[in-house]
Amino acid sequence: MNKNYDVVITGGGAVGAACAYFLSREKDLKVALVDFKKPGNASRASAGGLWAIGESVGLGCGVIFFKTLSKQMNEAKENGGELPPLRPHQLPDFFFDFALTSNNMFPSLHEELREKHNIDFKFEETGLKFVMYDEHDRAYADQIASGIPHLSDQVKWLNADELREEEPYVTPEAIGAMNFTCDHQVSPFLLIDSYTEAARQNGVDLYLNTMVTGVETQGNRVVGVRTDKGTISCNTMINAGGAWASQLCEWATGHTIPVYPVKGQIVLSEKLPKIMRGCISTSDCYIAQKDNGEVLIGSTTEEKGYDTTNTLPELKGLAQGASKCLPILKEMNIKRTWAGLRPGTRDEIPILGPMDGIEGYINACGHFRTGILCSAITGTLINEIVRGKETTLDLKPFLYDPKRFEDLEPPFYG
Ligand SMILES: Cc1cc2nc3c(=O)[nH]c(=O)nc-3n(C[C@H](O)[C@H](O)[C@H](O)COP(=O)(O)OP(=O)(O)OC[C@H]3O[C@@H](n4cnc5c(N)ncnc54)[C@H](O)[C@@H]3O)c2cc1C
């Protein structure tokens, strides 16, 4: 093989494929994308939510924050004790900027890929509704809203009647909803295929089903990527290895980075007639009806290493949570279940950009639960870094720095 490239991207999930696409738009760099689909690769396991506000306040993955809380609440209710304190899980402002900038790119990206490359990743303007069942949920939602006053124009409150008008299949027990009107969805499968195919059409060489087995360095510089099919020389390697990024980083730099797998399980129904206008998050799960009618119910947040098994209690919990919100789902046929591995970091913020002490190496990893949403801004930033341009957003909070992760308590994933 031994071809020469300006850039080799290792990992062809949403993040790597987006990097390939944004780097290829000017058609002036020789770029290769190398990918081997390891079991649990995240992008194909994802829900495809572009839940910029929902994820930034912790509601997209409602299960994370409510699992522990719900248990404490049930105990408090049973014992007549006090309800536990509410703890909305809000990421820092710079992450909101990152997520919202990416989110804002999707309408034009969708159009661009359709017009220039004839590919449609099914961008749907749905909104994300946090459906509330009781006053505790409402108090939680109020706290979230008070934490994001600058985004109040993106938050629409629905009382019980308004909710039922918008979502007639939601249980009459719901007392209302908080709707993040800018949070939408795509087909994650089609999004990766779109980035990849558009990059190919722009001249990127695809090495699919090709395993990276090592990295070639000379002195303090990356000069190539070893694969099971031969070595590929490059000036720059981009590490988009998802939950496996730490291994790739170690090969390139001699150091690991704290990116680790966080398992999420999903239940998918057979196609149904349209039962939802928007995506929904509750204290039990999130629910999204995809463009083809299938209803996707997610997701757990489990630290189980590289385990990708499906487990009955968790799947049952998701299905029960979804049918509590949308009772019609009690009749659904389950088409498929799966588990994927989010590339987690302790601060839940991606690791982007170069690393001290090594030339020709760039991180594009650790996107945890928002790699689909944040793929567009990541591709943009990585393209700017490779070209030595000023970056659209300040890169500093995303750079790898061991101090970033010092003294961090593990988040309470249950
Ligand atoms: C259940 C679930 C639901 C989710 N829902 C959402 C959502 O609604 N919205 C959202 O924005 N995000 C969501 N996420 C998170 C999102 O899927 C991830 O953040 C994103 O997919 C990460 O993309 P990636 O390209 O970094 O990783 P991946 O998609 O895992 O891609 C990395 C690729 O690199 C390959 N690779 C690794 N090592 C090597 C090697 N040595 N050689 C060759 N190839 C290699 C892997 O096999 C893989 O193909 C969800 C994740 C899960 C698991």
What this model shows, in words?
The protein is of the alpha/beta class. 32% of the residues lie in helices and 24% in strands. It has helices at 14-24, 52-56, 62-78, 93-117, 135-147, 160-166, 188-201, 245-253, 312-325, 375-386, 402-405; strands at 4-10, 31-35, 49-50, 128-132, 155-159, 176-180, 184-185, 205-208, 212-218, 221-227, 230-239, 260-269, 279-281, 286-289, 295-298, 334-344, 351-354, 361-365. The strands form three sheets. Strands 1, 2, 8, 9, 10, 11, 17 and 18 form an eight-stranded mixed beta sheet that branches. An eight-stranded mixed beta sheet has the order 5-6-4-13-14-15-12-16, with helices on both faces. Strand 9 (212-218) and strand 10 (221-227) form a beta hairpin. Helix 1 crosses helix 10 and helix 4 (93-117) crosses helix 10 (375-386). It is globular, with a radius of gyration of 21 Å. The site of flavin-adenine dinucleotide has 41 residues, from helix 1, strand 2, strand 12 and strand 16. Flavin-adenine dinucleotide binds at residues 11-16, 34-38, 41-43, 45-49, 211-212, 240-244, 264, 266, 298-299, 340, 342-343, 365, 367-373.
